[in-house]
Amino acid sequence: MGFVKEFKEFAMKGNVMDMAVGVIIGGAFGKIVTSLVEDVIMPLVSLATGGVDFSNLFVRFGQIPADVPAHLHNNYAALKEAGVSMFAYGAFIQNIIDFLIIALCIFFMIKAMNKITRKKKEEEPAPEPSAEEKLLTEIRDLLKKE
């Protein structure tokens, strides 16, 4: 089989197409969750922790260049742009919170899908046994009586 034909068969299989759709939807879902975290949840966390801004927690290792204004010496974004070496543990905490919220959203989504799937299975009637299955059941019952 030629390489092109083999690749075409592989690329057109249902699993590959399903995976592609999943990746695209996952990317869009990621943007929604990121917005939820940054724009809704983190302001509430900041309010609950007395105004702590996780993204601005860092330990500076390098010297601050002279061209960085004094009022930006404690600003992570400004120092990063200036090329100052830092240990940004606040960004790490932020990413952990993002991950936990995304994992929680996926858990709830899968839980809801499983509930829907279970309801559909419960609604479906059991299939009628075939003539062969009925005959075998009768034979089994007769053998039990003996």
Task: Please name the defining characteristics of this protein.
two-stranded antiparallel sheet; mainly alpha; elongated; 146 residues; single chain; 3% strand
Explain what this protein looks like in three dimensions.
It contains 5 helices and 2 strands. The protein has 146 residues and is an all-alpha fold. The protein has 2 domains: 1-47; 53-146. It starts with a helix and ends with a helix.
Q: Would you identify the regions where 5 or more consecutive residues have pLDDT less than 50?
A: none
The count of β-strands is: 2
Tell me the major beta sheet: 2 strands, antiparallel
Distance between the termini: 61 Å
H/E element sequence = HHEHEHH
Strand order of the largest sheet: 1-2
> Quaternary state, please?
single chain
Radius of gyration, in Å, reads 29 Å
Strand content: under 5%
How many structural units, i.e. domains?
2
The class by helix and strand makeup works out as mainly alpha
Helix content: 55-70%
List the helices and strands and how they pair.
Elements: H1 3-11, H2 14-48, E1 59-60, H3 76-81, E2 86-87, H4 89-123, H5 131-145
Antiparallel strand pairs: 1-2
Write a compact overview of the structure shown.
With 146 residues, this protein is an all-alpha fold. It has helices spanning 3-11, 14-48, 76-81, 89-123, 131-145, and strands spanning 59-60, 86-87.
